[in-house]
Design a protein that fits this description.
The complex is a heterodimer of chains A (291) and B (232). Chain A has 291 residues and is an alpha+beta fold. Chain A has a single domain (10-282), classed as PPM-type phosphatase domain (Phosphatase 2c, domain 1), CATH 3.60.40.10. Chain A is built from nine helices and eleven strands. In chain A, strands 1-11-10-6-7 form a five-stranded antiparallel β-sheet. In chain A, strands 2-3-4-5-9 form a five-stranded antiparallel β-sheet, with helices on one face. In chain A, helix 2 packs antiparallel against helix 3 (87-116) and helix 7 (230-247) runs antiparallel to helix 8 (249-266). Helix content of chain B is 32%, strand content 22%. In chain B, strands 3-2-1-4-5-6 form a six-stranded mixed β-sheet, with helices on both faces. In chain B, strand 2 (56-66) and strand 3 form a beta hairpin. The longest helix of chain B has 22 residues, at 31-52. Chain B is globular, with a radius of gyration of 17 Å. Chain B starts with 11 loop residues before the first strand and ends in a 26-residue tail after the last strand. The chains are: A alpha+beta (291), B alpha/beta (232). At the A-B interface, helix 1, helix 4, strand 8, helix 7 and helix 8 of A face helix 4 and strand 7 of B. Strand 8 of chain A pairs parallel with strand 7 of chain B.
Chain lengths: 291, 232
């Protein structure tokens, strides 16, 4: 942390739990979560990836892990000082460079992982082997990726594939910072492993002025799919903000893993992962001292 | 543990729909009786598969077609409570109308966006007598129609294999040929169990990246059986 920044204006919390259906079928947790190191200088990066988990994506848990680490590495290459940025440059960087680089670096990481750990025949089915031979080795690591990159002056939201990024305002109103993607329907998703997947990325840029979010949530699709309807899922945001304000972040942290287990058990059965960034001050004027 | 954040939790609905040919020819050589038997026989096995995956709420119903089409079991029924009502054979083969009626029920709403891909099983022994393409277009015009697991069972050698293949829409997946009561039971059992199990917990499917375009991985189907047992 640089001199002068005594405390980061955010606190981070999250958990990733193996889904109830994965426990029954012996599958691992194929989600990966990376929480920001708030003790370091910004940007602070929250990343979540969800491995596809099908027989053809038999290394998707590794693909998810590579995805969150790649996202963090690429986001740290901000083209200027994050504390005094040229916002128009950053916005252009986020919308153009970031997507290409995340996808390119993830593929590079997959290639390196395969070189270091060659795929053994017993890892996959015959049809998966055929797919690998026809250039589908990225599919073996296929994953979705959600990234929130926070500095003292702006936030970048970035996503390829399913899952949810929510923001919660001081008054508890829950919003989606990214536009919906009609291609995400049923169990079909855009993916890091698809051709030209960087073109499928959705990006939003938010200047931290006026009314910054009190809470930012990222969740794998197993979370939202566990609720009877959209309204029930969105209520997670306002309920969590209320709980944090009433009982503190530590109380939420103490219960989070149990909640996620129960949500998967009663809901989708899928792996359920939630990462959150909670602003430590609700006063935008006070936040200004950081930016 | 404090109250969970958020609204009501729920397992994901999985709609399983039989689409049954009840034309007059299904009355020949006991085909309709065998179909009734095969579906009734499969119900306990379906229930067992559903019990093994409480995260999918399997809801079953049936539509029939002959002179026109109508919902035979209209209410999406939890599989644990599902009872088969016998079909009777008479009339022509208005398959297109059945698909159009099905398309109406696959709209959002009444379907939910968070549902699992529905399983649609078309069973027929003949050629459509109405505008099949119109019905198929209506079905594929709905997102859940396109994303559904569409399977077909051809009963006897007079079934229109090409029409059933168009309904399935995936060249790697062929209509199941049932030329005997035994083969019909095997095929009905397979769609009710192996396919249902696969559809109950589908992994995410990336767009473009996969070799297969099937929305749900379909397990290997049973053999059609020994030609010596063929009666239809």
């Amino acid at each position: 942390m640089s001199a002068g920044l005594v405390l980061p204006p955010w606190r981070a919390l999250g958990a990733s739990r193996r889904g109830a259906a994965h426990v029954r079928s012996g599958l691992p947790n194929q989600d990966a979560l990376l929480l920001p190191d708030l003790e370091s200088d910004p940007p602070w990066i929250l990343a979540l990836a969800d491995g596809h988990g099908s027989p053809k994506s038999f290394r998707s848990d590794r693909g998810a892990l590579l995805a969150v680490n790649t996202a963090a590495a690429v986001c740290r290459r901000l083209p200027c000082d994050p504390e005094s940025p040229r916002l128009s440059t950053i916005k252009h960087w986020a919308e153009d460079y970031l997507s290409r680089e995340i996808v390119r670096c993830w593929r590079e990481a997959v290639d390196e992982d395969i070189a270091a750990h060659p795929i053994a025949a017993e890892e996959c089915t015959q049809s998966s082997l055929a797919s690998l031979e026809s250039g589908g080795h990225y599919l073996a690591y296929g994953a979705t990726l959600l990234v929130v990159m926070v500095t003292v002056t702006f936030i970048i939201y970035w996503q390829v594939g399913d899952g949810d990024i929510l923001t919660v305002a001081d008054d508890g109103v829950v919003s989606r910072p990214l536009p919906p993607d009609e291609k995400l329907f049923g169990n079909e998703t855009t993916s890091l492993c698809a051709d030209r997947s960087w073109q499928e990325a959705r990006t939003a840029f938010q200047v931290l002025a006026g009314a910054p979010p009190a809470l930012i949530l990222v969740a794998s699709d197993g979370y939202a799919n566990s609720y009877r309807d959209e309204a029930g899922f969105l209520r997670v945001g306002s309920d969590l903000l209320t709980l944090i304000r009433a009982d503190g972040l530590e109380a939420v942290a103490a219960n989070l893993s149990d909640w996620l287990d129960e949500i998967s058990r009663q809901g989708s059965g899928d792996d359920v992962t939630l990462g959150m960034l909670c602003r430590t001050t609700t006063n935008p004027a006070r936040l200004g001292q950081w930016g | 543990m404090p109250k969970l954040p958020g609204g009501e939790l729920a397992s994901r609905p999985l709609h399983f729909i039989w689409i049954a040919d009840c034309s007059g020819s299904m009355g020949v050589d006991g085909k309709i009786q065998q179909l009734n038997f095969a579906i009734r026989d499969a119900i306990p096995h379906m229930q067992k598969v559903a019990e093994d995956n409480p995260n999918a709420a399997v809801l079953v119903r049936a539509i029939k077609f002959s002179n026109g089409a109508q919902w035979h079991i209209a209410q999406p029924t939890p599989v644990a409570e599902f009872k088969w009502l016998d079909l009777e054979a008479m009339g022509v083969t208005d398959m297109g109308m059945a698909l159009s009626m099905l398309a109406e029920q696959l709209k959002i709403p009444p379907m939910s966006e968070r549902a699992l891909p529905p399983v649609l099983v078309l069973i027929s022994d003949g050629r459509p007598t109405d505008d099949f393409q119109k019905g198929l277009s209506a079905l594929l015009g709905e997102p859940w129609g396109r994303k559904a697991v569409r399977l077909a069972i051809a009963i006897g050698e007079d079934a229109d294999y090409e029409v059933l293949q168009r309904f399935i829409g995936h060249p790697e997946l062929k209509p199941l040929q049932a030329n005997s009561p035994e083969a019909l039971v095997r095929h009905i059992r397979w769609v009710s169990t192996a396919v249902l199990k696969s559809a109950s917990a589908p992994a995410s499917q990336p767009r473009e990246g996969g070799v297969s375009k099937l929305n749900v991985p379909i397990p290997a189907p049973p053999e059609s059986g020994d030609a010596a047992e063929d009666v239809w």
